[in-house]
Specification:
Number of helices: 9
Strand order of the largest sheet: 1-2
Largest sheet: 2 strands, antiparallel
Shape: globular
Low-confidence stretches: 1-9, 223-227
Strand content: under 5%
Distance between the termini: 75 Å
């Protein structure tokens, strides 16, 4: 069977989508930032059509949204969305941990152990610690060796990027590291049930810190005027 030749024209819509999504993920385009077609055209150096295509796809995935009188903005998950995100993380990442305990290669186990060790040396550097944390969870997802689960986790990870890291809190950083160490021990024992429980406990702990942070943000908002 003869396949058609590869097009010489790049998929500019997909390229714009990937570049904007990467900027959202790394914080260059923070939650709440207003996005205009004109600004993105200038940033990306392309025409309006692929920018519109990218924004449509990003809105479908929930990474950008429409706000009254502001237009398109980088999404800001609210309290209920955070609850829903963590509930889904607990199910999906718990399953990934179980599968990883069963299917991870020795090379993947060694890589996970190295990341946990790197984490211990970076507890006082939130930016570096957050990057290690992302690599650790990403490797665990791949070590589950289930393409459909990996696809679902990739979209969830993109949405979680809309939330700031909690690892700037030294207490949370230390606690998260200890939870990762406990998780690694269950993986090395190849104990799927224990790995799933360890991951779920880790995510419940993360959710508690996230909710406490959200409540603090609400307390700091100015009170509405009027009687």
């Amino acid at each position: 069977m003869t396949l058609p030749p590869r097009s010489a024209t790049p998929d500019l819509g997909r390229d714009a989508y990937e570049r904007v999504k990467a900027a959202i993920r790394d914080g260059s385009l923070p939650p709440g930032l207003r996005l205009t077609e004109a600004d993105l055209v200038a940033r990306l150096g392309i025409s309006r059509t692929p920018v519109r295509q990218a924004l449509t796809r990003l809105e479908t995935e929930g990474l950008v949204s429409h706000e009254p009188r502001r237009g398109i903005v980088v999404s800001r998950p609210d309290h209920q969305q955070v609850i829903e995100l963590y509930a889904l993380r607990e199910v999906l990442e718990g399953t990934a941990a179980r599968f990883a305990a069963q299917h991870a290669s020795e090379a993947e186990m060694e890589a996970l152990a190295r990341l946990v060790a790197e984490e211990a040396a970076a507890l006082d550097r939130p930016g570096e610690l957050s990057a290690i944390n992302l690599r650790l969870h990403g490797l665990l997802h791949r070590a589950a060796h289930n393409r459909y689960l990996l696809r679902a986790l990739a979209q969830l990870t993109d949405t979680m990027a809309l939330l700031p890291t909690m690892l700037g809190d030294p207490g949370r950083a230390q606690q998260s590291h200890e939870e990762h160490r406990a998780l690694l021990e269950t993986l090395e024992r190849r104990d799927g049930a224990a790995a799933e429980a360890a991951m779920q406990g880790h995510l419940r702990s993360a959710q508690q810190h996230r909710i406490a942070w959200l409540l603090k943000q609400l307390d700091q908002e100015p009170a509405p005027s009027g009687g």
